[in-house]
Structure formats: structure tokens, C-alpha cells
Design a protein that fits this description.
Elements (H helix, E strand, L loop, with lengths): L1 E2 L12 H7 L3 H28 L3 H7 E4 L9 E4 L3 E3 L5 E3 L3 E5 L1 H4 L1 E5 L1 E2 L1 E2 L6 E2 L8 E3 L7 E3 L1 E5 H5 L3 H26 L2
Antiparallel strand pairs: 1-3, 2-3, 4-13, 5-6, 6-7, 8-11, 9-10, 11-12
């Protein structure tokens, strides 16, 4: 979980006097600046997380939830929940040895032996609609003794370390002072 309020704000001390001169309008200006900065940081987090995990940005966008700032609570929060992501959501390809999936920049392409998501004889295999795109592994020699294969990627864990955490902090540190300056100038009519 990321929160804009948790990032070190050394450079924001210069806005104390300006916010004080705004009076009751100060929380409104700060709220607008935090929400805009948070939205910009969310975009960077989604891009970085997609590269780090190998998941499409569409899947990451559905997974990352936002709690926006308000006048009374000046905190913008990104949250994600969930467990081990199914191989269905990754770029996958079936080979004779098993399914090969791209698990992001850190892990690269990984082979899952004896797994499949298509049926028929090679090379004319077809997608099995009954599986809904899921990758399956045989538990025994029985025809229907199958289980879904998971990737080992946990979005909440990936979100708080590596390039994703750096992208969030960098985006907030670059954009928040600029947005605060803009919103304060706008409120003061400068």
C-alpha cells in the first residue's frame, strides 16, 4: 500500500506561509494538489508494475484501488489485494514441454513443465473453451484430475518493492511541490 502522506516532504516547508494565508481555502488547495499528484503517481505505478510483473496494464489497473484525498483527510492511498495470480493473465505460449509464460523483468520467461491450455495433437492444437484460458497441470494419469497453475506473482508484494516503489516516490517528489504551487497560486489569484 502506498500513501502520498507517507513520502518525505522536506521541500514542502516553503508552502507553510502561503497555505496559512489561504485560511479556510488551504485544505481545498492541498486536496486538489494531492489528488492530482496521486493520479499521476498511480499512472507511473501501473506502468512500472506491468513491467515488473509481466501482467498487462489492464489487469494491474483492475487490481490497484484508490482512496482519494478529501478536505478532512489529506491522504491519497493506493491499495491492492489478492493472492497468487493465475497464469491465464500472463503472456503465455504452449510448447511440447509445457507452457512458457513471461513473468516480468525480474523473472523473465519461465517454463512450467507438463502444463497445457490447449487440446489436440501437435501442431494443430486448439484452445479449450472449457478451461476459460486457464493453464492446467495433470495431477495423475486420470483424464480429469487437473489443477489450475499459479504464477507465484503476488501483486501487493510486487507493488511495495523494486521499481514500482521507486516510481511512486519519484513521481510524488517531482510533482507534489509543483502542483501545490499551482493550486496555491490559483487560490490566491496570482
Amino acid at each position: 500500500m502506498f500513501s502520498v502522506g507517507d513520502v518525505d516532504m522536506k521541500g514542502l516547508q516553503r508552502f507553510d506561509n502561503m497555505l496559512g494565508s489561504l485560511g479556510a481555502e488551504a485544505p481545498k488547495a492541498a486536496n486538489r494538489a494531492i489528488n492530482r499528484t496521486g493520479d499521476m503517481a498511480r499512472t507511473q505505478v501501473i506502468k512500472a508494475l506491468a513491467k515488473q510483473t509481466g501482467l498487462p496494464q489492464k489487469t494491474i489497473r483492475r487490481s490497484v484501488k484508490v482512496k482519494r484525498s478529501s478536505w478532512s483527510d489529506l491522504t491519497y492511498t493506493l491499495k491492492s489485494a489478492g493472492g497468487d495470480v493465475s497464469l491465464k493473465y500472463f503472456q503465455k505460449r504452449e510448447t511440447r514441454e509445457g507452457v512458457v509464460a513471461n513473468l516480468g523483468a525480474g523473472r523473465g520467461r519461465e517454463l512450467f513443465p507438463r502444463t497445457f491450455f490447449r487440446g489436440g495433437a501437435f501442431p494443430r492444437r486448439v484452445d479449450l473453451t472449457a478451461f476459460g484460458g486457464h493453464v492446467m497441470d495433470r495431477m495423475s494419469e486420470g483424464r480429469f484430475h487437473l489443477k489450475k497453475v499459479k504464477s507465484g506473482v503476488f501483486i501487493p508484494e510486487e507493488m511495495v518493492d523494486g521499481a514500482t516503489a521507486e516510481a511512486f516516490e519519484r513521481s510524488v517528489e517531482q510533482n507534489l511541490p509543483r502542483r501545490l504551487d499551482h493550486e496555491i497560486s490559483r487560490a490566491l489569484g496570482l
